[in-house]
Write a structure and sequence with these properties.
By secondary structure, the protein is an all-alpha fold. Helix content is 67%, strand content 1%. Strands 1-2 form a two-stranded antiparallel sheet. It is globular, with a radius of gyration of 23 Å.
Length: 363
């Protein structure tokens, strides 16, 4: 039986099983590699995976549904703090009662998944609460509302002493790792891919292209915009939970407007509506600030105490937006750009042309 003849859900399960097997091998491989500084590179990879989840989830809202949200860091903060709260006050004390061994390892991972999913669910509820009253707005007005929501969440956290308030939330166990981050990363990409090709995803695209025309065709635009916010918020909350259990410390300053802007930059850089574009842009913009550390070695000694990374980083983004404002991939995926095959003559009909201004091949 050919793989293409299998049901889509079975193909996804087989692909997911292969992906999990690869992740397990990579996880053990990274721990076994005797390279100095491997922990630093592993940390960069984990942060890269979290940023991929954030970028792909925001792309559902900004790219596919056509809404402009600037409050994604707020949803991430909700998921991070709630999952850390559950772990610190409820799950970790229960895990301490279990003696070290396979059962301890199994329950630790079960508690991690539960806390991350609960953080995502609370973030989805927050997305519903902010989406239902405000998504009748459009454009800049919606961006202002979502930006205000992110700041409200941050100020709200600053006044909750149970989760550290302004001093930060410390003592979170480090249960998250390379495997779990990239497993959720793969699930996020798969969910986004299947969502766009479903009836809900087609409704998202109709709202993005022309909201008035979509309403005229009977699409409940407010309902679908809220759905986009709920899905994107859930994934951002899950990313926050993974982030909390990897960093082991949370502070409200981690979720300021700059964080939302970074994720928006990833989506715009990759191309609004392109899933693979968001992935590539998240990889670039996570690695670039670290890679630019080498630029400091080539500066004059009089400027050696200054860090040029953010200046170079900003100039590169400005140049890219001036030369390619639609992003790296536009609304296409990477395989649509690099995987084009030459069409055979029998695939053409009388109305199609080969290239621009050329006639179809003779039959």
């Amino acid at each position: 039986m050919k793989p293409s003849s299998l049901p889509w859900w079975l193909r996804d399960l087989l692909g997911l099983a292969l992906f999990v097997a690869i992740l397990v091998g990579l996880s053990y491989g990274l721990e076994a590699i005797p390279i100095a500084g491997i922990a630093y590179y592993n940390r960069i990879l984990v942060l890269m995976g979290i940023n991929i989840i954030m970028a792909v989830s925001l792309n559902i809202i900004n790219g596919h549904a056509g809404q402009f949200s600037l409050g994604h860091a707020g949803f991430m903060a909700v998921g991070a703090y709630f999952s850390a709260y559950l772990t610190f006050y409820h799950f970790a004390p229960q895990l301490d009662k279990i003696p070290p061994g396979p059962q301890h390892f199994l329950m630790q991972n079960v508690f991690l998944v539960i806390s991350v999913l609960c953080g995502g669910l609370l973030a989805a509820l927050a997305g519903y609460m902010v989406g239902l009253p405000s998504l009748r707005l459009r454009g800049d007005y919606l961006a202002i509302v979502t930006l205000g929501f992110g700041e409200i969440i941050r100020v709200f956290i600053l006044n909750i002493d149970k989760i550290g308030a302004a001093r930060g939330f410390s003592g979170i166990p480090q249960w998250s790792n390379f495997f779990w981050v990239f497993l959720f990363c793969g699930l996020t990409i798969m969910l986004s891919w299947r969502l766009v090709r479903s009836s809900v995803g087609r409704a998202f695209l109709s709202v993005r292209e022309d909201q008035i025309a979509a309403e005229a065709m009977g699409v409940n635009t407010t309902s679908y915009k809220v759905k986009a916010f709920i899905i994107g918020s859930f994934l951002a909350g899950a990313a926050g939970g993974l982030y909390a259990h990897y960093m082991m410390y949370l502070n409200p300053t981690m979720f300021m407007f700059q964080k939302s802007f970074e994720v928006v930059a990833m989506v715009v850089l990759g191309g609004l509506g392109s899933i693979s574009g968001s992935v590539v842009a998240a990889i670039i913009l996570t690695f670039l600030p670290e890679g630019l550390r080498a630029a400091k070695d080539y500066m004059p000694h009089s400027m050696a105490d200054k860090d040029p990374r953010m200046v170079i980083y900003s100039i590169m983004l400005i140049v890219l937006m001036l030369t390619r404002p639609q992003g790296l991939f536009g609304r296409r995926e990477v395989w649509q750009i690099f995987g084009r095959r030459k069409r055979k003559p029998e695939e053409f009909n009388g109305d199609e042309t080969v290239g621009r201004g050329a006639a179809p091949p003779a039959q």
